[in-house]
Amino acid sequence: xARLLLLTALALLVSSVVAHGGxxxxxxxxxxxxxxxxxxxxxxxxxxxxxxxxxxxxxxxIFFVNDTGLACNTPGTAxxxxxxxxxxxxxxxxxxxWLHPYGPMSVWLAxxxxxxxxxxxxxxxxxxxxxAGLLEGNIxxxxxxxxxxxxxxxxxxxxxxxxxxxxxxxxxxxRHEILSxxxxxxxxxxxxxxxxxxxxxGTAVPSPEYLxxxxxxxxxxxxxxxxxxxxxxxxxxxxxxxxxPPVWNGFVNKYCQDC
Length: 259
Ligand SMILES: *[C@@H]1O[C@H](CO)[C@@H](O)[C@H](O)[C@H]1NC(C)=O
Ligand SMILES: *[C@@H]1O[C@H](CO)[C@@H](O)[C@H](O)[C@H]1NC(C)=O
Ligand SMILES: *[C@@H]1O[C@H](CO)[C@@H](O)[C@H](O)[C@H]1NC(C)=O
Ligand SMILES: *[C@@H]1O[C@H](CO)[C@@H](O)[C@H](O)[C@H]1NC(C)=O
Ligand SMILES: *[C@@H]1O[C@H](CO)[C@@H](O)[C@H](O)[C@H]1NC(C)=O
Ligand SMILES: [Cu+2]
Hints:
By secondary structure, the protein is mainly beta.
């Protein structure tokens, strides 16, 4: 009930967005890159020269691991522009009013080759560069990064990540994913993608064990995806395995940190 009252108060504060949430903008240093806003007409945004984010039409989640929108949301239409960023720099994703507290968050990259506009995001090989799940305590009462990420004071929710310093430069899709598991056995995926033009002199490329396709990589019956966090079997657990391959830290392989 307290939660409901809080949500109602928030709904009054934020007339446009009352539930869920989405990645609206990006920053690199002091530069602000505008992404898609579901509050504004599609025609004012889609294909505009400044657009760097792949279009996502609504703040509603994706419920199934086999949904083609799992890669870059729906419809996932490619933008004409790229965010320029140097390998080793941070990019911050800017959300409004993230409301869900449970589940992992992850950031992925995929090398587009000659062009991200022409790439089919369902065919790209994504690799994870960042993840955070249950930070401390148990599944229901513990602290998740997703819960810490929420600002309840009306300020944007900021999610900074660092582009691996050693990565081979080129055109990449960056994919942010929030998996929310607050509803029993009904996972909610919130993926959003943008286009990056990464510069630098690195040569590192992840090996095959780091690569993932969306859909394809996640399984419906993965105990971290189909999960009832309130059940007696789960609620007191203090472990949570984040789905997908391990994070690639930019090293060419685990035995060689400088090559
Ligand atoms: C995706 O998975 C859901 C749940 O298992 C199933 O109902 C649906 O038919 C599947 N869709 C496709 C396109 O395979
Ligand atoms: C980049 O992000 C990391 C991790 O969040 C943070 O520790 C570091 O201070 C950031 N660097 C800059 C220049 O903002
Ligand atoms: C994203 O940027 C647009 C345009 O500058 C702005 O209207 C909107 O409030 C921003 N949204 C967030 C969540 O920062
Ligand atoms: C990517 O950045 C490089 C270096 O600034 C530039 O030469 C190239 O034209 C950019 N490519 C795109 C597609 O923006
Ligand atoms: C927690 O660990 C148990 C025992 O190893 C395992 O069965 C369970 O799947 C794990 N739970 C999650 C959500 O990773
Ligand atoms: Cu929601």
